[in-house]
Amino acid sequence: MEPRIQYAKTSDGVSIAYWTMGEGTPSLVQMPVLPFSHCQGEWQLAEMRNWYERLAEKRMVVRYDSRGFGSSQRDVSDYSLEANVRDLEAVANRLGLERFALWSSAIAGPMAIAYTAQHPERVSHLLLWCTWAGASDFYRSPRARALRATRDADWEMYIETVAHAARGWSEVRESEPYAALVREGATEEAARAAMDAAYEFDATALLPQVKALTLVLHRRQAPYPHVDVARGLASGIPNARLAVLEGSALAPTVGDTAAVLSAIDEFLGEGEEAAATPELPEGMAVILFADIVESTSLTEELGDTAFRAKARELDTSLRSVIKEAGGTPVEGKVLGDGVLAVFTSARQAIECALRCNAASEPVGLQLHLGIHAGDVIREGNNVYGGAVNIAARIAGASAPGEVLVSDTVRGLARTSAGVTFDDRGERELKGVGEPQRLFAARGGT
Questions:
Q1: Domain parsing of the chain, residue ranges
Q2: Fold identical between 6-268 and 279-443?
Q3: Measured between alpha carbons, how far is 48 from 3 in angstroms, rounded to an integer?
Q4: pLDDT in tens, 80-96
Q5: How far from chain centre, in Å, is Cα 328?
Q6: Does domain 279-443 have CATH number 3.30.70.1230?
Q7: Which of 6, 170, 210, 299 has its CA 20 to 30 A from that of 287?
Q8: What are the residues whose beta carbons fall under 8 Å from the beta carbon of 137, sequence distance 6 or more?
Q9: Residue predicted with more confidence, 87 or 164
Q10: pTM (whole model) above 0.90
Q11: Is 45 helix (H, G, I), strand (E, B) or coil?
């Protein structure tokens, strides 16, 4: 059922249209993307309707129109970053949202970053989709400059181009409803004025002040912005994660929407009550340790910012693979120091390690992978003990892309179908009293 349009008043007296649907926490506020801002008109598009209905299955979703657009007050002249932040604040205050998650994409990215940095007590999770911190990060690209030139030369062509890009350049008849939404949502004059203001938005200096859990999402083949912009954005926010998904459509409602929704659900589940967090095992466990090959030299070669961006992207992928394989990633261990996970099954740990290798390829990094089994000591969200140290040393002894396991693990998994072992002989491992007989595990029979 179509949600009811309501209104909130900003501190400078502008009426902002919004609707809500669903129940549950954290509430998710979805910011509008200029010039696509028509929260009532969007509901007439099946893809967007399905998107909102799916999001609202687990939480309350809030969608609003920016000033000058859609069902919000149209006769305005202030489209500054500060004015757009006031729109968001008005809706949050009207609904009494003490703490909420914030979704932002494209041109709205700097607005969301600014609000999150200024109100750390209110934003629990920040999700940034195909966006940037400063407009210059986007508009320096040739495609962005061409897009702006098209806008200045031919407004109708600009609308159609943006609509096609949102859908990944699919059939014209499928993109036309998006173009019609832009035409209906605002006058050309208002859209131009808002975009001209947005060309100056820059929240880069605020990135280190973002305290909320942050997930930067991007589609690898998106026409703009380039994936490197997403990597730079993630590297500038403390403890941010980067998830690069396959596809070319700028709109999350098109293409592999299931993957986007899955990433959102998993991310918004973090930071909930400790009771909802899987218990790390006490006692016997199978331990997987992964470390980036030649991380020090790569940092020098790529630069700290570029390397950190790649490492965070890989970290997000590996943690997802670990969970899918039935393991528990240990928080507090991050790439550079290593990714640590515990399993109750040697077969699951080996299969996960093989999948981790595959996950590292698109990022352009390689891994050292080691697996051992033994007793662990659990303290909060971490595990300790000699078995953990041995797993780390085994990983260090592996060749790039090789999954090296101890004799103990081989004994536990030697009857597992689809896994074979190559004897690598006994190795002296630093800090380990006795030599360890190691085996390289590989898929296949």
A1: 6-268, 279-443
A2: no
A3: 13
A4: 999 999 999 999 999 99
A5: 19
A6: yes
A7: 299
A8: 204, 225, 229, 232, 233
A9: 87
A10: no
A11: coil
* Length of the chain as a residue count: 445
HSE-up (13 A, CA, CB side) for residue 277? 15
Q: 51: which 2 tokens? A: 């998107």
Q: Which two three-digit tokens encode residue 408? A: 């103990």
Fold of 6-268: Rossmann fold (3.40.50)
Rounded CA-CA distance 312/98 in Å is: 30
Task: Give dist(CA 330, CA 327) in Å, integer.
Answer: 9
Closest listed residue to residue 101, CA positions, set 163, 172, 219, 22: 22
Neighbour-count burial of 255, counting CB atoms closer than 10 A to its CB (0-12 exposed, 13-18 middle, 19+ buried): buried
- For the four alpha carbons of 269, 275, 280 and 284, in that order, the dihedral sign comes to negative
208-228 as b/e: b if 16+ CB within 10 A: eebbbbbbbbbbeebbbbbbe
The amino acid sitting at 97 is L
**Tokens matching residue 395:** 């990983």
Nearest to 69 by CA among 31, 118, 106: 31
Whole-number pLDDT of residue 277? 40
Q: Are 421 and 440 in contact (CB under 8 A)?
A: yes
Report d(CA 434, CA 73) in Å as an integer: 75
Quick: pLDDT tens for 17-50.
999 999 988 999 999 987 778 888 888 888 888 9
Examine the pLDDT at 393 and tell me if it is beyond 60: yes
Give the pLDDT band of residue 247 (cuts 50, 70, 90).
confident
Phi, psi (degrees; rounded to nearest 5) at 371: -130, 135
pLDDT at 273: 40
Which of 92-96, 203-207, 240-244 has the least mean pLDDT?
240-244
Mean pLDDT of the chain: 85
Q: On the CB side of 288, how many CA atoms lie within 13 Å of its CA?
A: 35
Residue listed under structure tokens 């994660």:
241
Higher pLDDT, 142 or 436: 436
Contact 96, 39 (CB under 8 A): no
Q: Are 240 and 216 in contact (CB under 8 A)?
A: yes
Confidence class for position 111, pLDDT limits 50, 70, 90: very high
The residue type at 279: E
